[in-house]
Design goal:
Blueprint lengths: L48 H22 L15 H22 L6 H16 L6 H10 L2 H9 L5 H15 L5 H7 L5 H49 L5 H15 L16 H8 L5 H12 L17 H28 L1 H4 L2 H16 L5 H22 L7 H13 L6 H6 L5
Length: 435
């Protein structure tokens, strides 16, 4: 029996997904890899087990809905196990034992159809789940052909025609499957061994179920995008009613952002001929007017410099924490790349800087070395320093220009190494305060 994740995406509005739809989605993200994080908060006070389970269930639904909205590649896949894992070996052993026992039952005299009837019942349920409400004629036909009461009577009298039923099931699968599954269904028609045929039927039916789930996700995405704000707001309100401290981290995050927005700017030089300000202007300086969007913008900027060891991540953006961390990583890489280029700028000379090919080559070298050492910036900058110096010296030689002196080489190397420090002046200016 195939081990398929039976994750149902729930929505407040029922959506019909036409059978036969091609649901070949990009495989860059599986349901497991894009599984959204669950918001965390202070320990709940006075919640029963039932209330806690309802809360977890509500958060899970909201997380899945949010992931569908923001991740265009979100889809479900059959769970893939490592062939060498213990779980995979146990699963294979159990499945083989089941199908071997089924073969023994069919080979007995008279044949024992106990397992076959169980399989036919499951196949019937899967076929019915692939139908749309308007496909009443097909539903009646399946109910009539795979009538479990009638089949049980036939089995009791040794008259159950497994071959005929398999042929009918294959015809229904051909009718209901997405175009991407046509070839796999056609391959089943060449299998003559009834046990192997039933086994492969279950495998392909599992894929068809995933296709239907993924098409349903595609179908409800426009509706969720239209109502996602209201939906998540309502869900958070429900959670707040159950746990008043649920958004404590969000409150702290926004309060800090508001304080930073209110903070007076650093003192600047005032020219002697500056026009004197009125008392009203002074009042505006002392009590600046801030808007919610300004606070929110500052809050998101703070998230791009969030300390990974700080567990007080805002609950309202917890579902996007992985994405924000990816953006933070990209921002750090761009900051370091720009800092190194700016430092090298003062040593290259106008002829080298005027060459787009040279600058692009330096960018690619720095980018590749940074991507290979994201967690070890110091080590990456050592390699970057050596490579940048080598490229500059080679480019100067190609242009018949004098090479960098030993002093300049040592100075450039030291400045590139110092970019690793978060308080480096060049990095701070480019990175708006550093990470």
């Amino acid at each position: 029996m195939p081990d398929v994740r039976k994750n149902a995406v729930q929505s407040d509005v029922p959506t019909e997904a036409p059978s036969g739809a091609d649901t070949a989605l990009p495989a860059s993200r599986t349901e497991n890899s894009v599984s959204p994080n669950q918001p965390i908060c202070s320990p709940p006070q006075g919640l029963s087990v039932t209330e806690l389970m309802e809360t977890v269930n509500g958060v899970s639904k909201m997380s899945i809905a949010h992931e569908i909205v923001v991740n265009q590649d979100f889809h479900m896949e059959e769970m893939a196990l490592s062939p060498d894992s213990l779980e995979s070996k146990i699963k294979e052993t159990m499945h083989n034992a089941f199908w071997d026992h089924l073969r023994e039952q069919l080979s007995a005299t008279p044949p024992d159809y106990t397992y076959v009837l169980q399989l036919l019942k499951e196949i019937k349920e899967i076929l019915l789940s692939l139908l749309l409400p308007r496909q009443s004629r097909l539903k009646s036909q399946i109910e009539e052909v795979i009538d479990m009461e009638l089949l049980k009577q036939e089995a009791d009298h040794g008259a159950l025609d497994v071959s005929h039923l398999s042929t009918y099931i294959l015809s229904m699968m051909t009718m209901l499957c997405a175009p991407i599954r046509d070839e796999e269904v056609q391959k089943l028609e060449s299998i003559t061994d009834p046990v192997q045929l039933l086994r492969e039927i279950f495998h392909v039916l599992g894929l068809m179920k995933m296709d239907m789930v993924n098409f349903t996700i595609q179908s409800i995405r426009p509706h969720l995008q239209e109502h996602s704000i209201q939906y998540e707001r309502a869900k958070f309100q429900e959670l707040l009613q159950r746990m008043p401290n649920f958004l404590d981290h969000t409150t702290k995050w926004l309060s800090q952002a508001a304080a930073e927005v209110k903070a007076p700017p650093p003192p600047s030089y005032d020219p002697p001929d500056q026009i004197s300000t009125s008392p009203a202007d002074e009042t505006m300086k002392d009590n600046p007017i801030i808007s919610p969007s300004m606070v929110l913008n500052q809050g998101y900027l703070n998230l791009l410099h969030w300390d990974p060891n700080n567990e007080e991540f805002p609950e309202t953006v917890m579902m996007d924490r992985t994405r924000l961390q990816e953006i933070q990583c990209q921002l750090n890489q761009l900051t370091i790349l720009a800092s190194v280029l700016l430092v090298a700028n003062s040593y290259c000379g106008p002829k080298l800087l005027g060459s787009p090919q040279f600058v692009d080559k330096l960018k690619q070298i720095i980018k590749v070395l940074l991507e290979g050492n994201q967690s070890k910036v110091n080590e990456a900058l050592l390699s970057i320093s050596d490579q940048v110096l080598q490229e500059i010296q080679q480019a100067l030689a190609d242009l018949n220009l004098p090479a960098l002196s030993k002093e300049n080489v040592a100075s450039l190397s030291g400045q590139i190494h110092s970019v690793a420090k978060e308080d480096n002046c060049v990095r701070s200016i480019i990175g708006f305060g550093g990470s």
